[in-house]
Structure formats: C-alpha cells, structure tokens
Specification:
Layout lengths: L7 E7 L2 E9 L3 E5 L4 E2 L1 H12 L3 E5 L4 E2 L7 H11 L14 H16 L4 E6 L5 H5 L5 E7 L9 H5 L5 H12 L4 E6 L8 H9 L3 E6 L13 H16 L3
Parallel strand pairs: 3-5, 3-7, 4-6, 7-8, 8-9, 9-10
Antiparallel strand pairs: 1-2, 2-5
GO molecular function: hydrolase activity
Pfam family, one: DLH
Organism: Terrabacter lapilli
C-alpha cells in the first residue's frame, strides 16, 4: 500500500508551473515542501504528524521520488537536475527562486479552502528558503525555515545569502516588523546552512526565532529527525494558526 493512499491527489497549476499535490486533514492549512531527494517516507511522516496535530496539510511533489524510499544513488542525481531547472536558484545570490510565485498561489488556494487566520509554510534543505519567499504574500502567517541550503554555500557570499531578491527581502522585513515571526531550525554544526541564520538574525532581529540543535546532522525533521525540532515546529504552527499558547 502506498504511503500516500490516504492523501487526496490533485494538481496545482499557476505562474507557468504545474505540480502534483497531496492533501489531507482538517483545520488551518500548512504547505510542507519536501527536500532532496523527493517526497520520501520521512517527509510524508512529518506531514502526517502535522495532520494529526490539527492541520490541513498540502505536500507538493516537485522532484525526485514519491512515497517510496529513494534508491541509494537518487540523492546524488537530484541536485544536478535541480541546477538545470528554471524553478530553482541553486547558485545565484540576491535572487528569489521563480517557483516562489507558484507556492504563493498554492498557499492562497489552501487558505481559501481550509480557512483560519493564515497558512503555514515549511521549507526544508533546498526548499528551506521558500518559506521566506512565500511569506511575501500576507496569507502566509507561519513561515518555517528548516536547514536552508540554497544557494549552495560555495564561498562566503552564497553561504550568507537567504535566496531572496532585494525587494522580497524588504517585504519579509516588513512582514516581520508587522508581527509575523519566522522560525528557523538547524543543527548548529551543519555546514550546508552556511551563515544564513546569522543573516536572518541581522535582517529580522527578534522576529527570527532560531532553534539550533547540537550535533552534525542535517535533516532536522526527516532523516535526522530531532524531537525538539518537531516539537518546536508544531508548537509554532499551533500558536500562529490555532491560537494555542
């Protein structure tokens, strides 16, 4: 039986892109954006956890495998493919990934159907910065940045870049100043995240809530799942979307 058999399959088409989506649950909406190498069992597990926590979860399938453990070589093949696609920006600095417009549209659609005060967006690894890009739209009121890995941290400039254009970074700063905090989660010694948390502290001040775990892991919510990371993300979404203290 597929791990996605209880999820409703659909498709969202907007801004020149179209991707499959999987939806389940009730309550305010949360978009869970998978990491490399794809929509793996571990990503589905965190999505199911959020469904069980009282949210309507939508998981777009953007690349790689879905619902089955990836082959051992798949992760090594996904990133080079992403380098060649127009949706992602794995090397450019000071630029928002084109896929961000599609994600904002998906968040608006989810909010229209699920209701609530807004939508949560959880980005991970190569999609970590997408939560920031999505919050340019006011419908996104609970952005979560988990181990952001793009642009790839080759050199200090890329390591510090948060995958946003100058205009979108200014919009994120305004949203935070107006009362929309950003939650960030990473392992403290994870070199792939570069110095992005330092950039976010400088740009967003107290509006950036950093959860830094001890150790050398990477995937805080999936492959190297840490209970504190899961609890902090869940609590943040509950406070922002369900009004729970």
């Amino acid at each position: 039986m597929s791990l996605l058999s209880d999820w409703r399959r659909g498709e969202h088409a907007a801004e020149g892109f179209a991707y499959p989506t999987y939806t389940q649950g009730g309550g305010p909406g949360v978009v869970v954006i998978h990491e490399s190498p794809g929509l793996t069992p571990e990503v589905i597990e965190i999505g199911q956890h959020l469904v069980d926590s009282g949210f309507t979860v939508v998981m777009p399938h953007l690349f790689g495998s879905s619902h089955a453990p990836p082959r051992t070589w798949e992760a090594a093949r996904v990133v080079p493919r992403l380098c060649l696609t127009r949706e992602f920006t794995l090397f450019a600095t000071g630029k928002t990934a084109p896929l961000a417009r599609w994600l904002r549209s998906l968040a608006r659609e989810l909010h229209a159907s699920a209701g609530g005060p807004g939508v949560g967006v959880l980005g991970m690894c190569v999609t970590g910065g997408f939560a920031l890009a999505a919050m340019v739209d006011p419908v996104v009121t609970a952005p979560v940045v988990a181990q952001p890995a793009t642009p790839l941290p080759i050199g200090p400039g890329r390591a510090a870049d948060v995958n946003l254009s100058r205009e979108d970074l200014a919009a994120v700063r305004r949203r935070v100043a107006e009362g929309c905090p950003v939650l960030g989660v990473r392992y403290r010694a994870d070199w792939v995240t570069g110095t992005r948390f330092e950039t976010l502290r400088r740009e967003l001040g107290d509006g950036f809530i950093a959860v830094e775990l001890e150790g050398h892991g990477h995937a805080t919510l999936t492959d190297h799942r840490h209970p504190e990371a899961v609890d902090r993300v869940t609590d943040f979404l509950r406070r922002r979307l369900l009004g729970h203290a």
